[in-house]
Design brief:
With about 260 residues, the chain is α/β, with parallel strands linked by helices. The protein has a five-stranded parallel beta sheet with strand order 2-1-3-4-5, sandwiched between helices. It has a two-stranded antiparallel sheet with strand order 6-9. Strands 7-8 form a two-stranded antiparallel ribbon. Helix content is about 35%, strand content about 15%. Strand 1 (about 5), helix 1 and strand 2 form a beta-alpha-beta unit. It folds into two domains: about 5-170, Rossmann fold (3-Layer(aba) Sandwich), CATH 3.40.50; about 180-260, Alpha-Beta Plaits (2-Layer Sandwich), CATH 3.30.70.20. The model has no long low-confidence stretch (mean pLDDT about 95). The protein is built from nine helices and nine strands. Bound molecules: flavin mononucleotide (FMN) and iron/sulfur cluster (2 copies).
Length: about 260
């Protein structure tokens, strides 16, 4: 049975995961949530998957908006994969409830642990550790695909109780502030005005003024702009100048620009 996999990504971890799941399922098509989030959708049959990063211990806004457009759909089987850096917290429970409000049943929800793209907290870790995570992710994707093929109904994966209480609180406190969290972005003098940051932003939140990016407070905090700037000229707060940049090694800038 054919599958439609909708993904959202800032630095390619979720795109890579979605591709690998699609390869395993065979008859599957990928769609970018950034491209189609505002269109109303009716999906009546087959398998539907959502693959997206965990942001601030919850579901990112574009994914929420996308799920809300699915009202009226009636897919046979829905699964989700939350791609994170190791703290899924309550994300998949939140998604399951959101889907239920839209009369959709989330049959299974899985966590995939990948390198962190939240550079203000120190970046993705050493290369060996990153590659270890890719290997473990691939192994888990084989297991996930097997469960999807058999249309398994199972509880969604979740973090420990303390994490779900504390971090979910932080998620809801932060949520309305996310669009303006771009106030902490700044550009240093390595910027050569290439405009890649503007083109890669899934929220169309960046405009150029005198050859430099300006953030317009409609940010989704995906970190694509900071991570894909070829000059590493975009900074966030005080600490990022001393850290390297990250994107999944098998996802290229052209993949990101194609899907915007
Ligand atoms: C603003 C922001 C918040 C994040 N919050 C979390 C989090 O709560 N838990 C976690 O494990 N990882 C968190 N991360 C890390 C990403 O979820 C992780 O690196 C993910 O694999 C990125 O996927 P992508 O490359 O598809 O965007 C966060 C990243 C960003 C940019
Ligand atoms: S991607 Fe980097 S170098 Fe290019 S315009 Fe943006 S900040 Fe400047
Ligand atoms: S401004 Fe940067 S972090 Fe915010 S949505 Fe655009 S690319 Fe993502």
């Amino acid at each position: 049975m054919s599958a439609s996999i909708f993904y959202y990504t800032g630095t390619g971890n979720s795109l890579w995961t979605a591709r690998k799941v699609a390869d395993e399922l065979g008859d599957a098509e990928l769609f970018s949530i950034a491209e189609c989030k505002y269109e109303n959708k009716t999906i009546d049959s087959g398998i539907v998957g959502l693959v997206f990063p965990v942001h601030i211990w919850g579901v990112p806004t574009p994914v929420i908006q996308f799920v809300n457009t699915l009202k009226g759909s009636n897919p046979e089987y829905v699964f989700a994969i939350a791609v994170d850096a190791g703290q899924v917290s309550n994300t998949l429970v939140q998604l399951k409830r959101l889907m239920a409000k839209n009369h959709l049943n989330l049959s299974a929800g899985f966590e995939i642990k990948m390198p962190s793209n939240y550079t203000p907290w120190g970046g993705p870790g050493p290369h060996e550790e990153q590659h270890k995570r890719f290997e473990l992710a691939q192994e888990k994707i084989f297991r996930i695909a097997a469960r999807i093929k058999e249309k398994a109904q199972m509880p969604v994966e979740r973090g420990p109780l303390w994490q779900r209480i504390l971090y979910t609180l932080i998620y809801y406190i932060s949520f309305s502030h996310v669009p303006k969290m771009d106030k902490k972005f700044w550009v240093d003098d390595k910027c050569n005005s290439c405009e890649i940051c503007r083109k890669v932003c899934p929220a169309a939140n960046i405009t150029m003024r005198e050859g430099k990016p300006v953030w317009n407070h409609r940010c989704d905090q995906c970190f694509a702009c900071l991570q894909w700037c070829p000059q590493e000229a975009i900074q966030y707060g005080k600490k990022t100048p001393k850290y390297g940049r990250y994107h999944h090694p098998e996802v290229l800038l052209k993949d990101m620009l194609k899907l915007r």
